[in-house]
Every structure is written in C-alpha cells, then in structure tokens.
Amino acid sequence: MKLSLFTENKILKDALIELTRPNRLSHNPQVLQTDHFVVVDQDLAILEEKLKTVPRQRLYFISNRSDEENIALIQKYQLSHLVGFDEKNTPLEIMQHYRIFEAKNFWGTAHYLSVLPDTLSFSESKREMSKIPELIKIQSWQDFFDTPADYVNLMANELVSNALYNGPEGKRQGANYPVDRKSPVFLKGSELIQLKLGVDPHAAVLSVIDSFGTLTKEKVIQSLHRSFQEKTVEQKQGGAGLGLYLSYSHGHQFIVNSKLGVKTEVIIVIEKNKRYKTYKSRLKSFHFFDEAHAHE
Amino acid sequence: MSKLKINKQLIDNKLIVHLAGTIDEDADFKPLENLTQPVISFDFNDITLLNSCGIREWIGFIQKLPASTRLHYQRCPQIIIEQINMVHGFFKSGSQIESFYAPYFCPNCDKESKILLTTEKIKNSKAPAATCPHCGTEGMEFDALEEQYFHFLKSK
Description:
The structure holds two protein chains of two kinds.
Chain A: E1 2-6, H1 10-19, H2 29-32, E2 36-41, H3 44-51, E3 59-63, H4 67-77, E4 81-84, H5 90-103, E5 118-122, H6 131-137, H7 148-166, E6 193-199, E7 203-210, H8 217-230, H9 243-250, E8 253-259, E9 263-271, H10 276-281, E10 285-290
Parallel strand pairs in A: 1-2, 2-3, 3-4, 8-10
Antiparallel strand pairs in A: 4-10, 5-6, 6-7, 7-9, 8-9
Chain B: E1 4-11, E2 14-23, E3 39-50, H1 52-64, E4 70-74, H2 78-86, E5 96-97, E6 99-106, E7 111-118, E8 141-142, H3 146-149, H4 151-155
Parallel strand pairs in B: 2-3, 3-4, 4-5
Antiparallel strand pairs in B: 1-2, 6-7, 6-8
C-alpha cells in the first residue's frame, strides 16, 4: 500500500519510513497500485488540496493545535481522521491505522491491543451498570498513573448509557424518544450492548459496541463541537449531551466504527503513562470509520 | 434507584453534607430540599462517579436552593475537579471551594500521591510544595498542568 506523507518533521518522517519499510510489513501486491493512504502533517493548504481528490476515509491530518481548535477543524472540513501530535505516539498511531487499511477491517480492539480484552454484556440500563467497576478492578493498572480506572469508569458509563438509550432510537415503533434517563430501558435478545476492556504493555483500550448503528459521523462531530464550544449540559429529555465530549477528552484516541443501521463501536485508547501530567498533555486523536466508505 | 448516599451533620450553624457513591441521573437530592442553613458544606470525598447526567441533576438541585445560601465544597477528588473544569455550572455563584485533591509525583520513590490542598494555598495558579507521604521526600513535583488544573478557581 502506498503511503504519501506531507511533513516537515524529520523525526516523524524517519519513524514512518522505518515503520513502513517493505520488509517490516506484509503487502498484497495487487493492492499496492490502487490503495493510497495519505498523511498531511500540520499544513492546512495541503490538506485543502488533498481534500479535493482523496476520500476522507483515507486522509489523515496530524495537528499540534489545541483539542478545541482540532474539533473546529474536524467540523469545518468534516474530517474522518485527525491525529493529535505527540512525538512518541504519533508514528505508532499512524502505523496502527496503516495496518487497519491493509487488513481492510477496522472493527474490534485487536488493532490497538495485543491481548484479548475482557467482555461485559448489557441488556438493561440500571442494575447491570454496577458490573463496570468490577471489570475495571480486575485489570492490571501497573505502570499507569494513579487513577486511570476512574476515567475508564466514567467513559464506560457514558458510552454504555448512550448505547442503551440512544441506540434503539428510530428502531422502536411507538416508542417516545429520547427516553428519560431515569426510566429503565430493556433491550431485546439480539440487541445486547457489549463492553470490552483490556490493558497491554502500551495502552488500555475500551470498546463499547451496539447493534443499532444510529450514531453517524455528523452526530458525533456536532456533539463534540457543541460541547467544546458551550461546555454546558443540555436541558432536554434524554442525555445531558456531554458523554462523547467526556469520552473524547479523557482518552487519547477516540475511534468510532460505524455500519449505519447495523452497529456502532466506540473505542477509546489510553496510552500507558506513569505520569498523570503526560496523560493530560497528549493531544487527542479522532477517527471515524464508515463501513459504507471502507473500500473507497 | 439512587446510588448516592447522603449524610447530614450540623455543627454550630454550618450544615456538613457527606456525599458518597455515584452522582448520576438517578441521584436523589430530595433529602436536601428545603434546607434553610445559611452555609452548607458538601464533602465529596467518597464520590466515586460523577457522570454528565449527574452534573445536570446537581445543577438542577443547587439552582433550587435559596439565593442567600452559601455553598462550600470540600475534599473534591481529582476526577470531580476535572469534570468541574470541563463543564460549566457545577458551582453556584458565590460558592467556595475549601479543599480538593491534586496529583503529585515523587521522583525519589517514583510514586504518585493525591495531596489534599486548601484553596488559600494556591497563589497565581501555582501549586504549593508537598512532602511525599510514602518516603518523606520534600519537594514533590506537581503532576498536572497548573493553569488547566486550577482553572476552576478562576471560574467559581
């Protein structure tokens, strides 16, 4: 697969050249000529130029702007991939995604996690949420700063709630949506929400997958943009409108995989850091994979 | 069913409210309605989760308290400070943060500690010095971005 990199950053360039050396990756010669993976580092003029010809699904923009500015850029250009620059982790992140395109399958945690995750299933909204802290407790948080479990607990709670309450929206005849979050919801047999959590030597990875597929790229970007702009709860029926914002803000990579009307998966990657300060200084990355555009 | 436990304690004319557990969409603040004490101090030490719907419930609750009531916040855990910094409205106008936890790192024993700070010790968004509770080393490093972490002190 051909990788086009537009960067002035020698460290990034060297790291990616090294990582993409042919002998380090397996290539399918048949796709070498057709597939194209484009990475633009910082330069908005080049980004705008590339947006004219490269599908957003295969266009990666690396940015060292603030998270707030990056969300504005994602909104302005409707980007599918924005990588928050981090000297240590950006080359690895780009490579993870390069391999995703090689594999032509973006679902699941295997691209980001070297171990099998533990799994929980949810079919109702009230009693089962107490299982989340138990799952978090059995993970090995060695070499992490002191409180990643608190953040994982919060993100898991927000994402599972969203999946349980917002997922079935539009799929239930006669139901009044959005549903008040104080009221319990019950899913049917095949509609389980699945949470996966694992920790390996490099990261903790959380995944929440539903069987509804109602979370579109437009909804995600709109929600993040509103939350970053206003930083307020929404006084409306349903959720407070901050779940995606909090999940985005407390992770390092925020990834949404979507098959419209079928399933959605939200994955949060937290890179391993001993220091809380390092955890907080990392600029966040945004990725949206749409099954409908997977083979463009 | 609410997973929030509330315990009230009246000392002199000051009401101390201990909150424990989860502040979420089911948080029930009814036991705290119709309070008339001029000062209410909320102790957040044992709060384990404050989610986005919980923030909305909290904001709704404090907005119903009499305008003259002064709210104090004490022993706020780090995760709550983060939420407060990220979402507006958690503080009622004129409220006061008495104390909160902040992360420090000891380069000697390589351990992180949550140190309880009082607000008056923070000058110009600079973290005060702290001693390692594990090995006694003085001069632990503040382990957050000061401007970002102490942002809530400006916005209260």
